[in-house]
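User: quick one, sequence for these tokens?
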């Protein structure tokens, strides 16, 4: 499926047009549960709890009350320093955390008890560009590392790696090579959602790079969403933009909608694009969606849950008259129409 995107359009889209329901959760503010929206990495949910990863990992109930924090910051076993990403194993009630400096994956149960960890060596992926998800009883990592080719010089291969329950590599395969000669400046948008559970399928979109100058890129296309099928990547859909001068950070799909987030090089404005597969209509909108359901006057940036792309979330901080300090943001959880 090829979907055209006219970047010159700016069609406001209200969430009531695509969302079946939206639940608001006011997150309790205490000395232990203080959240900074600028440093939130990912949010995931279970049947009864909300897990928020930022500078620390906090667990709230569905009423927004803080229940506990998981582990603590540090360099020792079971401790994290900089949280890059998290994934949840709902079946076995476990939480996986990618931490940088030191680079490792830490596994806890959902009560916050440390179970095990795996430290990366230098030949593994760079954790700063890593996404992970727990799929079909395996931990799947997507990210990049640095290597050297005798003919082309320095290059950065991007890989998918499948890990067993004891962190042994089951399989790995390269999805893209970025040849950068003797330069080493290449990075991904930090909040990309590379690998997501969709409607009965698993999807991968490996996002665009900020690159210092024109380099050679071989492998998966930056405008294509892929579906995992028998350990292969099968092209699912492609976004055809009216201009090449964009950075495309995110593409995902639910059973009905295709949603992407990108930046326009001309002025570096942020845009969302939403395509309704059922009606064949696309909406290109600057700065995000309009929340007419909750009456938020500011545009909101929605993000999919990595375990279910039929669901999305966003945050908004409501300041009330007389507030002496900024409260925790309110978490909004939405369900897309089918």
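Assistant:
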């Amino acid at each position: 499926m090829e979907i055209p995107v006219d970047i010159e359009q700016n069609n406001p889209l209200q969430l009531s047009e695509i969302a079946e329901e939206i639940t608001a959760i006011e997150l309790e503010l205490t000395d232990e549960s203080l959240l900074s929206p600028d440093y939130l990495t990912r949010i995931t949910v279970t049947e009864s709890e909300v897990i928020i990863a930022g500078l620390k990992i906090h667990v709230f109930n569905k009423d927004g009350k803080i229940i506990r924090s998981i582990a603590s910051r540090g360099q020792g076993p079971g401790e994290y320093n900089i949280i890059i990403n998290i994934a949840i194993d709902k079946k076995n009630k476990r939480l996986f955390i990618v931490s940088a400096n030191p680079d490792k994956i830490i596994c806890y149960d959902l009560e916050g008890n440390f179970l095990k960890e795996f430290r990366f060596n230098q030949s593994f992926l760079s954790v700063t560009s890593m996404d992970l998800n727990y799929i079909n009883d395996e931990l799947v990592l997507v990210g990049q590392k640095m290597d050297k080719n005798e003919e082309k010089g320095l290059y950065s291969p991007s890989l998918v790696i499948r890990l067993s329950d004891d962190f042994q590599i089951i399989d790995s395969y390269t999805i893209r090579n970025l040849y950068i000669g003797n330069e080493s400046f290449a990075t991904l948008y930090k909040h990309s959602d590379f690998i997501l559970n969709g409607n009965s399928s698993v999807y991968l979109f490996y996002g665009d790079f900020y690159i210092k100058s024109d380099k050679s890129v071989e492998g998966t296309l930056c405008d294509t969403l892929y579906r995992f099928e028998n350990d292969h990547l099968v092209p699912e859909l492609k976004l055809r933009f009216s201009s090449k001068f964009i950075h495309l950070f995110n593409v995902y799909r639910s059973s009905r909608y295709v949603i992407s987030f990108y930046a326009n090089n001309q002025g570096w404005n942020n845009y969302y694009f939403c395509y309704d597969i059922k009606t064949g209509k696309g909406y290109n909108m600057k700065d995000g969606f309009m929340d007419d359901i909750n009456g938020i006057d500011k545009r909101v940036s929605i993000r999919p849950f990595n375990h279910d792309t039929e669901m999305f979330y966003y945050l908004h901080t409501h300041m009330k008259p007389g507030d002496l300090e900024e409260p925790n943001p309110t978490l909004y959880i939405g369900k897309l129409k089918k």
